[in-house]
């Protein structure tokens, strides 16, 4: 019996090795990989996705294309990916809006059970932008103006339940003021209306905002984090302006539908981690104050779970209405 057990174990191990070798010979990927961005082109998530897609495509010598699928605060694009074939060819460029939606919305998918985490990509401090001729020079002046005119100062976002929405609601909560939300289909559209003075402000990531801040097209009145960014030394933190508890960060990650072959998940995780080490990617991130993260699928999943709980608590504490 013992000999038979050893033989069976040996045969099983050999079969596993043969299966792994057969997978390698099939040479994933052998057709284009699609990165789905659930927001409009030109926004912060789109910028990171296109940088990542180009670098990954060159590294693995296989096309990686970016497709924007907008709507419902990112939920339409997320649902499209999570219901796609779990073969590793349709991936979600996820952002910190994903756990917000999981916390506050009724979804057509399970944000945890239907999602295969692959890797955290980057993490950016949130920055609040106003147009260059705005009367507010810093966050203190903004808070004072909001207290004088409750519920009238407008801010734009990439949609209800986006990080730009809940991030601003959290800022209003810690400041003890009320503001008026104006949702758009993407952050680039909100930015256009900030430039055009149609709305007063917006919250975005350092990745998206830095070039426009440096060019003088907009003014940044505050940034999250405990220290100023070396790339934006003139922008004060909210902490130094009196709100140290305001620590909102916009992160980006890559995920797929649950059921992906473990070998594909491992391959993508390994290659994406290597992409973050590339000089052109590091230089781009460094220039904009973005922190490359990387790591394992398990670490990414832990971040998503923690953020879902964080935003649920904020919505209850601040009595935020999601419509």
Task: Itemize the secondary structure elements and their pairings.
Elements: H1 2-26, E1 33-37, H2 44-60, E2 64-68, H3 75-82, E3 90-95, H4 97-104, E4 115-131, H5 139-148, E5 154-157, H6 163-175, E6 180-183, H7 187-195, E7 201-205, H8 206-215, E8 218-223, E9 249-257, H9 262-275, H10 279-288, E10 291-292, H11 297-318
Parallel strand pairs: 1-2, 1-3, 5-6, 5-7
Antiparallel strand pairs: 3-9, 4-7, 4-8, 4-9, 4-10
Helix pairs in contact: 4-11, 6-11
Describe this structure in words.
With 323 residues, the protein is an alpha/beta fold. It has 11 helices and 10 strands. Strands 1, 2, 3, 4, 5, 6, 7, 8, 9 and 10 form a 10-stranded mixed beta sheet that branches. α6 packs across α11. The termini are far apart.
Identify the notable features of this structure and list them briefly.
ten-stranded mixed sheet; 11 helices; 323 residues; 10 strands; disordered N terminus; single chain; alpha/beta
Largest sheet: 10 strands, mixed
* Helix count from the secondary structure assignment: 11
Structural class: alpha/beta
Task: Give unreliable regions as ranges.
Answer: 1-7, 13-25
| First-residue to last-residue Cα separation | 65 Å
Q: Please give the number of β-strands.
A: 10
Order of helices and strands: HEHEHEHEHEHEHEHEEHHEH
Shape field = globular
